[in-house]
From TrEMBL, chain A:
Protein name per UniProt: ABC transporter permease
Transmembrane segments: 28-51, 99-117, 162-182, 194-219
CDD domains assigned to the protein according to its UniProt record, in alphabetical order: TM_PBP2
Record-annotated ABC transmembrane type-1 domain positions: 29-211
Membrane topology: Multi-pass membrane protein
Protein localization: Cell membrane; Membrane
Single biological process term from Gene Ontology: transmembrane transport
Family per record: Belongs to the binding-protein-dependent transport system permease family.
Annotated Gene Ontology cellular component terms: plasma membrane
Keywords for this protein: Membrane, Transmembrane, Transmembrane helix, Transport
Main location: membrane
Organism annotation: Metallococcus carri
TrEMBL record, chain B:
Family: Belongs to the ABC transporter superfamily.
Full protein name: ABC-type quaternary amine transporter
PANTHER family, sorted: OSMOPROTECTANT IMPORT ATP-BINDING PROTEIN OSMV
Molecular function via GO: ABC-type quaternary ammonium compound transporting activity; ATP binding; ATP hydrolysis activity
Species for this entry: Metallococcus carri
Signal peptide extent: none
Amino acid sequence: MITSIWTWLTAPAQWSGAGGIPTRLWEHIWACLLVLVIAAAIAWPLGAWIAHAGRGRWLISVANAARAVPSLGLLFAVAMWMSGMFSGSTLAFTIPPTIVLVILAIPPLLAGAYAGVHEVDPAVRDAARGMGMTGGEVLRKVELPIALPLILSGLRSASLQVIATWTIAAVLSVGGLGRYLIDGLASADYAQMAGGAVLVAVLALLVDGMLALLQRLVVSPGLTGRRRRRARTGIPRATASRPTA
Amino acid sequence: MIRFEGVTKKYDDSIAVDHLDLEFPDGAITCLVGPSGCGKTTSLRMINRMIELTSGRVTIDGRDIRDQPAAKLRRGIGYVIQHAGLFPHRTVVDNVATVPLLNGWDKRKARARAHEVLELVGLPGNFASRYPAQLSGGQQQRVGVARALAADPPIMLMDEPFSAVDPVVREQLQDEFLKLQGELGKTIVFVTHDIDEAIKLGDQVAVMRVGGRLAQVAQPAALLADPADDFVADFVGRDRGYRALSFADTPSLPLASEPTIELGASVDQARAATSDRWLLVVQDGRPQGWVEPARLTGPIEADSLHRGGTVARVDGPLRASLDAALSSPARRGVLVDHEGRLVGTVRAHEVLTAIEQTDRPRSDDEASGGIRLGKERG
């Protein structure tokens, strides 16, 4: 089995042309990127605003409940509902899965942004306001930077989910690595199916690793605990300390 | 001068502050003190509009605080809170530079100023690049004070700034804060629930009672000597008479010279130095502790000293002199000069005689509303 996967993966035919791995990989990456950009554009401002303003918390609950919706079922439902709208265009295949995956990606992104901003120490927020920051400044300069670790955690879990689920979207004749699984299934080519699955897994791990690296780079060391060791030199003793006799 | 005129804060079903009339004189520390729920923090937060008042008026130098946008008002007022509220994602120096940057200073100038202020609060340069999580609670509070001072505001609002640190560090922070205020002369509103802290730090103390009413406003000495009513007397607490001695400068006490021995001296030298049970050990003229020559088995070492006695400054308050006498194992209180060198010893009854001869602090000042600034502190 492993040999046949290896043979499939290393065959020169897989690495060129319209059905080749590079093309499928790019299709997959672009589709996921588009989904994540749209989802983040909706979820991040919304989550941050809900936490900052303390209003509309029910939206978080609704989003979390939406995680329970089965993605494949939703995919078919949206595809059938929209089938008439883009007849004849390839958009008829691309748009429904994009919408479904955006819906799928929103909950983790929203929860990350909300939890991140919500968990900012009230004393920190109070100090920021008390020093004369406007609401927007508090959000930009204090709440968002402090929320960054959780925002990025949300992004990581959303990315994993979107990369994995775009594979399923291949049932709707869209590009991406899912083609190997769906087409392999149709033609009973199990080496192709397994090879596709390996590729998806590798892509997901790579992206997650890159985001982890990004997290290390952009999150302030003051937040991560990487520089949490206690001060070694003590404070100078006060001149007023009293000697004893 | 900050002035409250009939200031009231109402919430739906309760009154937090009730028709408060109060003046906070320039260059002085006014302590707002009272039990929880007395509206002291609410009063403080109404000054920088973190809480908007319901009715009445707050003015700063005659100008209504509502005349300008809240954010602009706040940038001109230092703000220190209980848990410091430092920005965890920013280094110490960037925390301190916050308000100068908000005021549009360029980054280099703001940082230079931040380093300057950090020095002022006793945090040397190597702290600047650390993050708040790397600091102790006391150090975080210092940074909090530095951050409030960075833009050099004439007014500082301090909401229980020292109450979250342990007692030893708290006392140290209080002493340094008084020293700093002696140099800077800010108009300070200081909220605390600790009457001792209020009495120690305040030029003026305003005691508030539950329901947001002012119970008494007076200088600390007058508050101890003449509480306005049972509530204030109760709140000010026990040992009022003793604590009031903190405000009475020590008159010239009859000092006795004390035989001493240098640290490191031998048993024989110690036994030759005195016939008394206790012998005072000094180093470079500075008292180190007491020993019992009869019990010595070897040279006098730092470890073997009895250090239970306190040391008082000869020009300090009477309370310290009395405490030195009471706490000394030899019953002789050790008095030192401003450099910590031994001047002589004094007995408790001699301090008491001196106290008998001092006038009780008077409470006339509060009646006229005036307060004496720049009072001496022991």
